[in-house]
Recover the amino acids of this structure.
């Protein structure tokens, strides 16, 4: 038996995070639910909108599309994603999402394991408008001198 309490978190309980584009909501996290191995959330992306390119130096990311049609770039290579499809994005693989359809797209995502500190878990490589950001201190990460593992889309 565990001492961890069950916590139910609703989408409406989490304020939208639109800093990287889209509407990202980390639902089940160490803070909101007491998770210890990773976190889970939902991304809502309107037609024509995007989530800026980034990578996770400590985590792999599981993504499942529940609504709409998206294109995900994995280390620069585009892959179509539609309802009922998932993709595992390996650690250090640069990725961005674009809603290429004419309806709202939604994805459920999970990242694990957790980074040693939250601010280390996500590295932006561009801003929400797609402008490249400086890569200071990121040599050796995906796309910066070290090949990344391949990602595979499975439906």
């Amino acid at each position: 038996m565990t001492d961890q309490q069950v916590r139910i978190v609703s989408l409406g309980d989490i304020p939208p995070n639109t800093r990287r584009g889209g509407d990202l909501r980390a639902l089940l996290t160490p803070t909101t639910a007491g998770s210890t191995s990773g976190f889970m959330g939902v991304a809502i992306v309107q037609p024509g909108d995007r989530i800026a390119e980034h990578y996770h130096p400590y985590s792999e990311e599981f993504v499942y599309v529940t609504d709409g049609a998206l294109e995900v770039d994995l280390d620069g290579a585009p892959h179509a994603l539609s309802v009922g499809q998932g993709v595992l994005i390996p650690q250090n693989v640069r990725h961005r999402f674009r809603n290429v359809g004419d309806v709202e797209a939604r994805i459920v995502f999970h990242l694990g394991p957790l980074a040693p500190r939250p601010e280390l878990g996500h590295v932006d490589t561009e801003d929400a408008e797609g402008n490249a950001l400086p890569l200071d201190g990121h040599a050796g990460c995906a796309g910066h001198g070290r090949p990344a593992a391949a990602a595979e889309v499975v439906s």
Remarks:
- The mean pLDDT is 88.
- The CA atoms of residues 36 and 146 lie 29 Å apart.
- The first helix runs from residue 30 to 33.
- Helices lie at 30-33.
